[in-house]
Amino acid sequence: MTKAIVLTAAALVFLPAITSAQTFSATLNGAQETPVVATPATGTGNFTLSAAKILSYSISFSGLLGSETVAPIHCCALPGTPAGPLFDLPAGSPKVGTVGPLTAQQEADLLAGLMYVNVHSSQHTGGEIRGQILPVVPVSQDTWTLVKRLYRD
Fold first, then answer.
1. Residue 101 contacts by C-beta under 8 Å, 6 or more apart in sequence?
2. Which of 109, 112, 114, 146 would be a feasible disulfide site paired with 7, CB 3.0-4.6 Å?
3. For every one of its 153 residues, what pLDDT tens digit does the chain have, with 9 covering 90 and above?
4. Across the chain, how many H-helices and E-strands are there?
5. Is the CB of residue 132 less than 8 Å from the CB of residue 116?
6. Burial of 4 from C-beta contacts in 10 A (0-12 / 13-18 / 19+)
7. Strands (E), 3-150
8. How is residue 82 annotated by DSSP?
């Protein structure tokens, strides 16, 4: 709980307000579940937060050991820590839609990486695959040039 508060506070102070769309992604698997779930299931999620604080999502997965029961976006927890559901998502794969608008606190939690997608199944009612929703950090060509120089010298 203390870590979540510190990270949320840091996001509010150090991360700029979103004035244009920002992208996020999640890789879903059983290794991220709490506790870890041995499953062949995997998934991916792509998210966009608009300037109007609407979170668009496109999530797909396959290989569940049981049938999907629910798949919410949870908040607010670091990887390896459970949290309660925040937004319910429709059944099936792919899941495409929007939630929001996000409150200022929810936006800060998203920017701090404290939200995750959790797909629950009839085999694993606590969740079969999970993926932390993390900001996509663009890498410019200048960054790659600097990295290359480190290895040449």
1. 52, 53, 54
2. 112
3. 444 444 444 444 444 444 579 999 999 999 999 999 999 999 999 999 999 999 999 999 999 999 999 999 999 999 999 999 999 999 999 999 999 999 999 999 999 999 999 999 999 999 999 999 999 988 776 666 766 677 775
4. 3, 10
5. yes
6. middle
7. 22-29, 42-49, 55-62, 68-70, 73-75, 85-87, 95-99, 115-121, 129-132, 134-135
8. -
Q: What are phi and psi of 135, to 5 degrees?
A: -60, 140
Phi, psi (deg, nearest 5) at residue 54: -95, 125
pTM: 0.79
- Residue identified by tokens 């997965």 is 61
What CA dihedral angle connects 121, 24, 55 and 92, to 10 degrees?
-30
The CA distance from 56 to 21, in Å, is 10
Structure tokens at 141: 């060509």
